[in-house]
Design brief:
Strand 6 and strand 7 (167-171) form a beta hairpin. 30% of the residues lie in helices and 11% in strands. The chain folds into three domains: 1-193 and 383-396 and 452-525, FAD/NAD(P)-binding domain (3-Layer(bba) Sandwich), CATH 3.50.50; 239-369, no CATH class; 558-696, no CATH class. It starts with 6 loop residues before the first helix and ends with a helix. The chain is built from 18 helices and 20 strands. The strands form six sheets. A five-stranded parallel beta sheet has the order 4-3-2-8-20. The relative contact order is 0.12. It is globular. By secondary structure, it is of the alpha/beta class.
Length: 699
Amino acid sequence: MTGPVPAFLASALAAMLAWSQPAPGAERFDVVVYGGTPGGIAAALTAARAGRAVALVEYHKHLGGMSASGLGKSDIDTREAIGGVFNEFVERVYRHYVNTYGQGHENVKVSQNGYTYEPSVAERIFEEMVVAESRIKVYRNHRLTEVVRSGSKVTAIGISNRQTASDVELRGSVFIDGTYEGDLAAFAGASYRVGREARAEFNELHAGVVFLDHTADTFLAGTTGAGDRAIQAYTYRPCLTDDPANGVPITAPPGYERKLYLPYLEDIKAGRLTPRGEESAMARAVTFALLPNRKFDINMRPVALAYPFVELNFDYPEADWDKREQIAAHIRNVTLGLFYFMQNDPALPEEQRAYVRRFYLAKDEFRDNGNFPWQLYVREGRRVLGEYTLRESDLTLAPGLDRTPIFFDSISAGEYPIDAMPAHKRADDRKIILEGYINRLVQFTRPYQIPMRIMVPKDVDALLVPVAVSATHVGFSSIRLEPTWMALGQAAGIAAHLAIQRGERIRDLRAERIQRVLLGQDQVLTFFRDIDKKHPAYRAMQFLGAKGFFRDYYARPADPVTRGLAANWLNLVLRTTGWDIAVRSGGTGWWLDLPAGSQYSEEILAMSLAGIIPRPAGSSRFEAALPLSRSEFKSWLCRAGQLLGVWRNPAECAAPEAVLDANGMAESGWAETSEASSSPIRRGEFCRAAFALLERAGY
């Protein structure tokens, strides 16, 4: 479902192709970020901190996207899977509540270490972070008007002030699309998808048209897996309060239609909405996530067949600006109408209405927008066609592994369960769930690696897309969360900086250069269950996790490395640098205990052919399952460095320790403790040495 160019883009694209030189008087930046979402902000911050002049453009008057517009509960299940700028944001939120109210205050407890926050606090933190970077210039309330390209390379964009209609042209070396909708990518002529792939296209179990019974975890009649252009529902995330002193009553919105909400009565009768604790059955049409200061992040529960938000957004991704505003206003009115119905409709029992009447719009939130969020929850818009497309199989255990697939260019871990809102309205009375609703596949999704390539459009250069990434609908349904987008935005900012610094195309950048910077900024590339960030081998094991070192989620840094595993790991080190030593299938013939098909036999042979593992003089045993001694490891490491040409004043490795010491690779730099040369090398130590060796080789 690659999207055709919509009518309103056609003229802009024609102008873009005809006008390949920026106009005189344009403002010049190193990096231009269009979209002040959390992902866009992370990109701008990272590029600016690397010394780049950055323009940050936002359609609305406010920065922060959904995090500053009602989504006050960070969508993250495994906190250890994401670090970097997102963690910085969380820590700043936490410090705000501690500094404002004092340690031990209820608001500090409710903030859950900074992972839960009021919209105004999120916006304040984002503003503070941006203001602190003098290299960032912010353009608020501006919309995109055109993109300038020279061949396949984006060179400038045109933006217009939505209030004054004044135009600005921004030139740059690298452009980053931080929008939820993928607007910059589309204006630039990048290919993209809208809607849902068929099940067969990427062999995805949950793709296409799907009716999924979440209580029984089974597919229902009507599931076809057919692809279409349907989009999961958009909503708003109102911020309500039960404090009357800080409350604004909810009134009937323009065009209120009572009939739109009457089907909720059927859901209550059928038991799809049932009371929970003090919450009435009708109140269960939404969720109330507690925020500091007696506020609540409100989400719309799609378990009711009456859920009125589906199909309202189908035209939104490719609509022009005015049409989008109309769609957003309509969804706003439907949202307010639902609360008005719950609080006032006489068809509901008084006790149910009374419970919901406890809640008001928060008076101190969204003061310039009628106390209602300004950002529509665009869960999914366009999805760019990139160098790689993330899919369902990338989020689940890989064949032959006890972890998800390994990506050499991993730039972050992802972790949120596959989760998609409904795409179609109630089909008939026999259905018990809305079509397209996939509710948090916790047991199905596993922490996974996210490849850099999903941010790199296939057909446009000097452009990164960290939000509207290259993913199938199912893949996107896991990645579409603000913490993940911030991690991707951070990687985009680094990639932009390195591309400028090195004079390379983004798609030609060596992934390892980006990864090392990310690790220095506390980002997570590979999720493990058993190693702390403070461990001396943490960064090395993160890095090498993207090179295939680990087949499960356990780093086990203190375990000894067997001789066979050491050969395997050194083979992966060489492959990272481009070496691929061809070996014949079968056993080595040099060792009696390595017959054809035995574990690591091919890797051992490859390392022998490379001269890293000495060949035996006569018949002997390799003993692949025995631990590798430190002295032997140093010999192998020395020969690997010799093969890669990284040693100054190359010498034979007859005295490997002297070679390593002379080249800054002394054992003290990678060993945890000083031990006898016959003692085994540990996994963490091996990884630290391999990490250092690859750095010397330029990886």
